[in-house]
Structure formats: C-alpha cells, structure tokens
Specification:
387 residues; alpha/beta; Rossmann fold; six-stranded mixed β-sheet; two-stranded antiparallel sheet; 14 helices
C-alpha cells in the first residue's frame, strides 16, 4: 500500500514537472513567433512590387523611398496569416526615365521579387532620375508579365505605383492593365506626387478604384520627418554585435557580407531613426540570408554544413572538421537569437514611444512610407492577414 502511495506521489510530481516544462516551451515559442525570430510552418507570402517614377521631377520621391524602405518592411513583418509569419518578397521597377530603353516603354526591372532585402536597399540607393515619358499602363502590365506572382488565398499581392504625370499616357490602356492585375488578385495602389485634386483629374484615383487599392497623394519634395526615440542609439548599438554573427560562405559570401555593411551605412546616412528601423528589420525572420550566411543556411537545413564543399567554406573554417564547424555555427545561432531578442524588446518600446508622440502632432505630413503603411494594413485585413 505504501509503495502504491509513493508511486502515485512520484507520478504526480513528474506530471507536474512535464506540464510546467510544456507551458514554458509554449511560452517561449509564442514569444519567438511574436518577435518574428522563428517562422511557424506556413506557405503564406506577401509580394509587393514598387513601381517608381524616376523622371527629372522625382528626386524627392526616391529620397522618400530610401528613407522609408525599412519602415515599410517592418510594417509587412508585423503581419500574420493564421498565426504564422508570411514570407516577404519585394520587387523594384523604375519607369519614365530617358536613360531607359524606349523600346521597352522606358521601363526597367531593377530587381525581381526577392527575399534579399539588402539587394532591394542597394538598388534603391543606386537609382538616378532623368527626364522621360511615364507610361503607367505599360509598367503595370510589364510587372504582371515578368514577375513570378504566387497563386492561392494565403498570398497577398500588391502593386504600388507612384508618379506625377497623367495616368492614361502610353500605348497600353491602364484600365486593361489594372483589370488584368485584379484578375490575378493583385491589388493596385496609386501614389500621386502632387495635390489631391490634380491626382484625381489625372486619373490616379481612378486607377486605384479599378485596382481595388488605395489612392494617396503626397508631397514628394517634403523632407521626411522622424520621431527620434530614446531607444534608437541602443538599437543601433546592437547592430555591430548582430553583424558579427554572420559568416559568409561560397562565391558570394564575402561580397554579400560587405554589402550588408554598406546598406547599414546607407540607412545611417539618412538618419539614426532610419538606421534603427533597418536594425529592427534585421532582427526579424524576414531578413533571411541562407544563400550566403552559414547560420541562416544551417537554420533552414541542419545538413547544409555536411553538404558544403571545402571550397565554399570561409578561410577561418579551413582545416576544421564538420563537427567543429557545426558547433561554432550553433553557438553563433544562439548568440544571434539573444541579440535579436534584445532588439525586439527595444523595438516594442520604441514603437510605443513613436505612437504616443505621433498622437501629439497636429500637422501630420503624408509621405511615401505613411501612404504605404496605411494601405498595407487595410488590405491585409481584407485578405486574412492580421497585424
């Protein structure tokens, strides 16, 4: 009888410990998911094509895009589909530039839809303006034809086209191009660089109505206003530690890691606030570099190191066994996770501060970032994505 009582007590203690451990694991997983440090299994995706007018008058627009790209990324990464973090892909086009091929309607695909956020930043900062003819219908149809748009209800597909010339210029009817987009469940949003009434007269609003997107007008020449927070410097200080956890491999490892630093400098060159936005983006799952970083590659496939040829290994790993390399990568992964968690906690405080300060402002200015953020959240709600 005493044995039975003892066994019963022992089983109760073990069950309590198992239950406590399960709760702890679930709590940790929930935190990591909320912080975008891990991605639950999902096929959901958000695809965004940015179609930027790079004619002579659009220097201000390009500057705003440079200033707001990481805020836009962070808006996208707050979204969830059925509780899971979607994959983010962004494409970039320029149009209306005399330096582009007239046979292609003065249109150039700068990048295809890609997860490589550093590449988007690199190409965006390299854009130059020049006078030209702006054919909105053409660039919309070109992006539909060229890009690999996903099918399925778990994908949100958005086009953002910005400019300041009449929307109906060019050989391709904008109404037909936008109808083609909508048939593929690609929503078209228009951003007119000028006053609201001019944008309506020049059919930019009509384009958004047909495309079931949002119409905005912005002052593209206005300087972007930032809300400086007490957390910006702390977040930026985390960046150096974070970069040290990246280990390049293969033919592109060195150049891609160098480009990571360059894009850090580009963001910091705009403002410390913009730099902090980029660092926050780098703390999330959407900032994934498995094609050149050994840690991200290992996180995606734990066998990647075993499959890696000696030629692809960085110099510091030459002569080490695969077991030794794996141990180093696992340690780096834990270190990165710790830094990302720290950035995530600071980012929550930072955003709360920004939200409170924004409420106090009476003269709110609309720029490219504000326009895109508003429409992303609204269209996400309609498509089953939650912020």
């Amino acid at each position: 009888m005493k044995k039975l009582i003892f066994i019963s007590i022992l089983m109760g203690v073990l069950n309590a410990k198992i239950k406590a451990s399960t709760v702890a694991i679930q709590a940790t997983t929930t935190f990591l998911q909320a912080s975008n440090l891990i991605v639950p299994p999902t096929n959901s995706k958000i695809q965004v094509a940015l179609l930027l007018d790079t004619s002579n008058s659009m220097d201000g627009l390009i500057d705003q895009a440079k200033s707001r790209i990481w805020e836009i990324v962070n808006t996208l990464t707050t979204l969830k589909y059925q509780g899971a973090t979607p994959e983010i892909e962004i494409a970039l086009y320029e149009y209306g530039n005399d330096g582009l091929d007239s046979r292609n309607g003065y249109i150039r695909q700068v990048t295809p839809l890609t997860k490589d956020l550093d590449l988007i930043s690199e190409k965006l900062f390299a854009l130059k303006t020049n006078g030209g003819s702006e054919f909105c219908g053409n660039v919309i149809q070109t992006s539909l034809n060229d890009l690999k748009w996903e099918d399925g209800n778990n994908t949100m597909k958005l086009i953002y086209i910005s400019g300041n010339e009449p929307f109906n210029q060019g050989p391709i009817d904008y109404k037909k191009a936008i109808s083609n987009a909508l048939n593929n469940k690609v929503y078209v949003n228009t951003i007119y660089c000028g006053d609201k009434e001019s944008g309506i007269r020049e059919l930019w609003q009509n384009g958004a109505v047909i495309g079931e997107g949002k119409y905005f007008n912005i002052n593209s020449n206005a300087k972007v206003e930032y809300i400086v927070t007490p957390y910006d410097d702390q977040i930026n200080a985390c960046n150096d530690k974070l970069n040290k956890t990246y280990i390049g491999y293969g033919k592109r490892g060195y150049s891609k890691k160098a480009n990571q630093i360059t894009q850090d400098q580009n963001a910091a060159g705009v403002s410390s606030s913009n730099s902090a936005e980029r660092v926050v983006s780098k703390s999330k799952a959407a900032y994934s570099n498995e094609e050149w970083d050994m840690v991200d590659s290992y996180k995606k496939d734990e066998q990647s190191i075993q499959k890696m040829s000696n030629e692809d290994l960085p110099v510091e790993f030459k002569g080490k066994s695969k077991t030794e390399i794996t141990q180093i990568i696992e340690a780096k992964a834990k270190e990165r996770e710790k830094i990302q968690k720290e950035i995530g906690e600071l980012a929550v405080k930072r955003q709360k501060f920004i939200n409170e300060e924004a409420k106090k402002k009476t003269n709110k200015t609309d720029d490219l970032g504000a326009a895109m953020k508003t429409s992303i959240l609204e269209l996400a709600s309609k498509n089953g994505f939650k912020g």
